[in-house]
Amino acid sequence: MNPIVTVQDAVTAFADFIEPTAAELDAIEREMPLILAQVDLLDAQIITMDRTPTELDVRRVRRARRRVLAVGRTLANGVQLVPGVGA
Fold first, then answer.
1. Where are the domains of the chain?
2. Which parts of the chain have pLDDT scores under 50?
3. At a CB cut-off of 8 Å and minimum separation 6, what does 46 contact?
C-alpha cells in the first residue's frame, strides 16, 4: 500500500514576503463600493433570518439589492465611482 502524500510544497500565498501588487490594490479600491453594497445587503438579509420580516425589513433588503445591482452595473460599464457619493 502506498501512503498518500502531497507532491507540492506548502502554499506560500500568505507568506510574509508576498504583498499585493499596486494593480491588485487598485482593483480592490475600484470594487470597494460594490463590496460595501454587498455587505449592506448581507447585513439586511441576516437581520431577517431569525424573525418574520417586517415591512421595514423588506424595504431594507430591496433597497440594498437595488444598490448592489446599480453599483455592479456602474462598474461593469467602466465608470469610476467616487466613494461615499451617489449609488
1. 22-76
2. 87
3. none
Distances from the Cα of 67 to the Cα of 25, 33, 58, angstroms: 23, 10, 14
The answer to whether 81 and 33 are in contact (CB under 8 A) is yes
Helix, strand, coil % over all residues of the chain, rounded to 5: 55, 0, 45
C-alpha cell at 59: 424595504
DSSP letter assigned to residue 15: -
Whole-angstrom distance, CA of residue 45 vs CA of residue 59: 11
pLDDT tens track for 54-73: 999 999 999 999 999 999 99
C-alpha cell at 69: 445591482
The pTM score is: 0.68
